[in-house]
Amino acid sequence: MVSTVEKKLADLGVTLHTPAGPVANYVGSVLTGNLLIVSGQLCFDADSKLIAKGKLGAGVTVDEGNFAARVCAINLLSQVKAAIGNLDKVARVVRLGGFINSAPDFIDGPKVLNGASDLMVAAFGERGRHARTTIGVAALPLDAAVEVEAIFEVT
Predict the structure, then answer these.
(1) Percentage of residues in the chain with pLDDT exceeding 70?
(2) Can you list the domains of the chain with their CATH numbers?
């Protein structure tokens, strides 16, 4: 049975896929109590191809970064579904942490991370409103433009 949240995502043209496995010594998510902590997700499409590589403010535009953050959010939701089976079990999106591969003078990281935040609110409504941190970094794995991690409250 498809969850209500997945129906909303489908209406937005979003399909969840099998999440990528860890590439080092970690797991995709950890459930502790009623919190699901999801490891940082890069901007891989369903074919495991990075959709944005390089630095924001030096070759990657804010719009491209915003879309990359949205793709990271889709990957987060794929991890959540794999962990708990049904996105309707998400009681709240608690926090997003965004890492933006940034040129030294790039200051629009929050505009980039809105791609992930907007998808969470579109999918979960008020339950999708969350605390957030956006950090510009010198580099990300595989030269990805964006990486996003999250904490969810689940039932």
Answers:
(1) 99
(2) 33-154 (3.30.1330.40)
Among 17-21, 47-51, 130-134, 150-154, whose mean pLDDT is lowest?
17-21
Residue 1 has pLDDT above 70, yes or no: no
- Calpha distance 38→152 (Å, rounded): 8
Backbone angles phi, psi at 154, to 5 degrees: -125, 160
CA distance 138 to 89: 36
Determine the average pLDDT of the residues in 63-73. 98
Buried residues in 32-64 as b, exposed as e (16+ CB within 10 A): eeeebbbbbbbbbeeeeebbbbbbbbeebebeb
- Which candidate, 70, 150, 154, places its Cα nearest to that of 112? 70
Average pLDDT, the chain: 96
pLDDT of residue 21: 85
Main-chain dihedrals φ then ψ at residue 88, nearest 5 degrees: -70, -10
| 35-42: strand order across its sheet | 29-32, 35-42, 146-154, 90-101, 131-137
What is the rounded distance in angstroms from the CA atom of residue 115 to the CA atom of residue 98? Answer: 10
Question: Residue 23: how many CB atoms within 10 A of its CB?
Answer: 9
